[in-house]
Amino acid sequence: MSTIRPTWVHAAILGTFCAGFGVLLASTDIVTKDPIKARALEDKMNSLGQVIPPGIHDNNPVIDAVTVKAEDGKDVVVYRATKGGEFTGFAYELDANGGYGGPVKLMLGVDPAGKLLGVRVISHKETPGLGDKIDAAKTDWITRFTGLSLGNPPVEKWKVRKDGGQFDQFSGATITPRAVVGGIRHGLEFFAANKARMMEKK
Amino acid sequence: MAASYGRIIKDGLWENNGVLCMLLGMCPTMAMTGTATNGLGMGLATAVVMAASNLMVAMFRKYVTHEVRIPVYILIVAANVTFVDLVMNAWMHELYKVLGLFIPLIVSNCLPLARLEAFAAKEPVLPSLVDGAFMGLGFTLSLTVIGAVREIIGQGTLFADAALLLGPSFTFLESRIMPADMGILVLILPPGGFLIAGLMVVAKRMIDLASGKEIKMAGAHSV
Fold this sequence. Notes:
The complex is a heterodimer.
Chain A: H1 7-51, E1 65-69, E2 75-83, E3 86-96, E4 104-110, E5 116-123, H2 175-198
Antiparallel strand pairs in A: 1-2, 2-3, 3-4, 4-5
Chain B: H1 5-15, H2 26-31, H3 36-60, H4 69-91, H5 93-99, H6 110-120, H7 125-155, E1 157-158, H8 162-166, E2 175-176, H9 190-210
Antiparallel strand pairs in B: 1-2
Helix pairs in contact in B: 1-7, 3-4, 3-6, 3-7, 4-5, 4-6, 6-7, 7-9
């Protein structure tokens, strides 16, 4: 430590460590990439099952999917449930903006009349113990949206109670439920605007 | 100057406890102790990263020059956090869904860095591994106790959602101590973290005083 070494020695040591750990991280990424992708797909199948009841379709919605352009230019994949050739439900993911820790990823299931079959939170970075009550594994808050639609409740009531709407916020956390309620309303508007495109035959 | 293992373990768990004595890692201590389960999860993930980082730094301690040691330590901690994140996401997905939220936060914890600098950079591999593991467990212990106190007073439960973290066989841990509407919200919110952590530091000093020990000042650099 007391000897004075030329700068390049330190640079070489730091560079070697960076390169070494870079290679290790890259190989870990390669090894874990496929399992992580598989887990994400399993999660998607599971959440699809939660927003589209298995009884209402005889096809595999993960395969029967169409891509719809949202108003912000993003492509949204819509999974379609059919029974006997008739559409019975649509499921799609969207980001509810304005969460405390960034966007909250939601999965919506909607029937052809625009009524919610179910909503689930797929991933979020909200505060553990406060905002994470939107997660169906923690509380049943998210299940209260099932059966609702754009006219029920009326659009001015599609807000958390604190903003004059009809949905409960959590004690100590208003931002997260506000984002989720807004996201669901936005998702229903998206359905209303793109219904025709979603029902196109392949 | 290798310290005895008994000493290292005692230091990590109580004497030189990362939270209660050194007051390090305050960010996760405040943010992750709303419930005992969250504290436990954050603590365990940190302990794994600390043990692995201490081990690696001790292995490489002869090759890292004094001048670049800090960037190398940060690199090692960040790499370990990423390893744990990727591996858990791939093969322990259920656990990852619960802990995944906490893992990236470990990088911003200065307790691992302090132990690398104060211990692993000078000591052989095995004592460093033990130091990392038990400093991490001491951290876990503090976070779990702070979380338990905040959870009981704040929302009346203890170890809520423990089954999500530890598996269904731990459902028995989940208990309700007080009725739901008795909760004092401020303890769940950030100020509660400061209040309880502060009171715990005082409690530790009083216990040490009562047992006739000299009060150890915050000493990240004492071994």
